[in-house]
Specification:
55% of the residues lie in helices and 7% in strands. The two termini are 30 Å apart. By secondary structure, it is mostly helical. The strands form two sheets. The chain has a three-stranded antiparallel β-sheet with strand order 1-2-3. A two-stranded antiparallel sheet has the order 4-5. Strand 2 and strand 3 form a beta hairpin. It has two domains: 138 residues, no CATH class; 156 residues. Helix 5 packs across helix 10.
């Protein structure tokens, strides 16, 4: 790509991130979709953080940054990588910079040439994006002050582990236990219930294994010590206990998980794990219970920290107060 255009686009996208950071710091929830942004009522917020002027329009916003105004639109699913010729040339003029282009015509020719060479590709509707860079979403915007160790909810890997994997394990366990109760009451299950029983049990153990794997990969003890506020030190004891319990049969659970989520060639690992003499199901229930307790305590500390450190808008309670428009569950992203 032409170096002049590359520099201009780089500065433009960086300005968009800066504007979004200011929006987020001002207590405005960033949208997960462009429609969600359109439905967001900001009539009660006249200025952004530090008195910065802004103008909400359609799928985007115009923000008067100290070194010039930047105007942008959100992509359909909250992408912030979108750009077009009109916006970036206007951005350059706001900054009173030419970026080496003698005329507007020269800039537009360069922009169109990059499209023809597929260096700039369509994003959606009238927006484009750089082909060489991955898409960025609103979830990457980090509005923390320097020294604040607690990440935003959508960037917290512990919450990702809980929401995407442990919640799935918990749901499967509830269905599994419901069928156990049904069996205890009727002393029999229908053919469909028998099939579901196996699915629920295997899925529970499979997602539990993924949760344990993530817990170990995050190096939770170090994370709590080095990458979280001091308040999280109270979870160290529970973390140490969990590490010890998980390690007891983790490798066997991992092998069972592989047979659940991959086409198995043998049932030996499955039979070995479920052997009554091994009592591994009781062990699995124990680590499930311990993980549930750990995640619950983590979220309590998380909510308290947000509420006590000027980050109320990031808490679940703060979001309810702002009556944030809902989005389809499939559009929810937690990194």
């Amino acid at each position: 790509m032409d170096e002049r255009l590359s520099n201009l686009i780089s500065d433009y996208l960086e300005a968009v991130r800066t504007a979004l950071t200011s929006i987020k710091k001002s207590g405005i929830p960033l949208p997960r979709t462009s429609i969600e942004w359109m439905d967001t009522d900001l009539s009660h917020i006249s200025n952004l953080d530090s008195g910065i002027n802004y103008f909400k329009h359609g799928c985007g916003c115009s923000v008067d940054l100290p070194n010039g105004t930047v105007d942008f639109d959100f992509g359909r699913y909250g992408e912030i990588s979108g750009l077009d010729a009109w916006r970036i040339i206007r951005f350059a003029k706001e900054r009173q910079e030419t970026y080496g282009f003698s005329t507007d015509e020269e800039f537009h020719e360069c922009f169109q040439d990059s499209i023809k060479k597929k260096l700039i590709i369509p994003l959606d509707s009238a927006l484009y994006r750089l082909a060489s860079q991955p898409l960025e979403y609103t979830s990457i915007i980090d509005s923390r002050e320097e020294g604040d160790l607690l990440p935003h909810r959508e960037q917290d890997k512990v919450l990702t582990l809980q929401i995407h994997y442990f919640y799935a394990a918990n749901l499967m366990l509830k269905h599994y236990d419901a069928l156990i109760k049904k069996w205890n009451k009727n002393k029999k299950l229908s053919r469909t219930d028998e099939i579901n029983f196996r699915i629920y049990m295997s899925s529970w153990l499979g997602f539990l294994a993924v949760t344990c794997e993530g817990y170990k990969k995050l190096n939770m003890h170090r994370l709590l010590n080095k990458e979280r506020p001091d308040e999280y030190q109270e979870l160290i004891s529970k973390c140490n206990t969990l590490n010890s319990v998980i390690n007891k049969n983790y490798d066997d659970l991992r092998k069972f998980r592989n047979n659940v989520f991959h086409l198995r060639t043998t049932i030996n690992d499955t039979i070995a794990f479920l052997s009554p003499s091994s009592d591994r199901l009781s062990w699995a229930r124990q680590i499930h219970k311990d993980l549930e307790s750990f995640f619950s305590d983590y979220r309590v500390l998380w909510e308290c920290y947000y509420m006590l450190n000027g980050r109320e808008n990031e808490s679940e309670f703060g979001q309810k107060k702002q009556a944030r428009p809902s989005a389809l569950p499939l559009n929810t992203r937690v990194s």
